[in-house]
Amino acid sequence: MSMIAGVYLWFSLPDNWLGESGILTRLAEHIYYVSLSLAIACAIALPLGVLLANYRKGAQVAIGLFNIGRALPSLGIVILAIMLIGYEASTVIIALVTVSIPPILTNTYVGIDQVDSSLKQAARSMGMCRWQMFIQLELPLAFPLIFSGFRSALVQLIATATIAAYAGFGGLGRFLIDGLGRNDTPQIIGGALVVSALAIVSEWVCSMIDTLMVRKWRANDVELSAT
């Protein structure tokens, strides 16, 4: 009971919310690390996944190489990046990008590759160019699987971004690292709860976006069928 009271007290103190070391600042730093890393990962993985799905040569090898990132511990990647680059913000970003590319790349490749070839042939027969076929056919059909990879990477990044604190940077991981250093259990639990809440909210938002996009494309399909 005292532990619950301690965590409640930690959240109730205004000093723990405001200032350079407050929850709001650390949350903003955490979101920045996650957003930047995810944007870079998408910029790499999405075009590469589409390219591999269309040309297929070396696809399995390329995906296998990128999936090595899943087998490597995130902390190990950070330590390696620190050894090569030093204590720079880029060390954390490199580690997070390395972790988040595999699920996006794999799901993009599989989603595009699994589109029925007969549908592609029908699209070509209708006079669609390659770009039109991708936008109007392949992307809507592959979107649920592609977005699933994005969601997986996002939730994983939210948890993994706590390693930024190990490299001496900010983010919600500071509550965990500093709490361990001070033997402050309420701070450790409080930081973990904030990370968990961010992951849950992010998953809920992604679920809403997924539902809305699927409904939009289905509505477009109905309109096209009616015409």
From TrEMBL:
CDD domains: TM_PBP2
Subcellular location: Cell membrane
Membrane topology field: Multi-pass membrane protein
Domain of life of the source: Bacteria
Spans through the membrane: 31-53, 65-87, 93-112, 156-177, 189-214
Signal peptide coordinates: none
Domain ABC transmembrane type-1 residues, every copy: 27-206
Biological process per Gene Ontology, one example term: transmembrane transport
CC annotations in GO: plasma membrane
Pfam family membership, one: BPD_transp_1
Entry keyword set: Membrane, Transmembrane, Transmembrane helix, Transport
Membership in a protein family: Belongs to the binding-protein-dependent transport system permease family.
Name of the molecule in the record: ABC transporter permease
Species classification: Bacteria, Pseudomonadati, Pseudomonadota, Gammaproteobacteria, Pseudomonadales
